[in-house]
Amino acid sequence: LPVQAVLIVQCLLGTLCVLLVYRLTSNLLQSTTAGLVAAALLAAHPGAITLSNVLLPDVLWLSLVLGGLWLVVSSKQGQATASLALGGFGLGLAVLVQPFAWMLLAPLLGLWVVMHHRKWRSAAPAAVMVIMFALPPGLWMTRNVMVGFGARLSSEPTIDRYFHTLADMRMLENGEDLHTAWPATADTLLNELETQRGQEQDVLAAMDQITWQTIRSNPLLYARALKRDTVHLFTDHSLGVLYQQLGISYASTSRLRT
Question: Helices (DSSP H) in the chain: which residue ranges?
Answer without folding.
Answer: 3-29, 32-44, 46-51, 58-73, 80-97, 105-117, 123-146, 156-160, 166-174, 182-196, 203-217, 219-233, 236-246
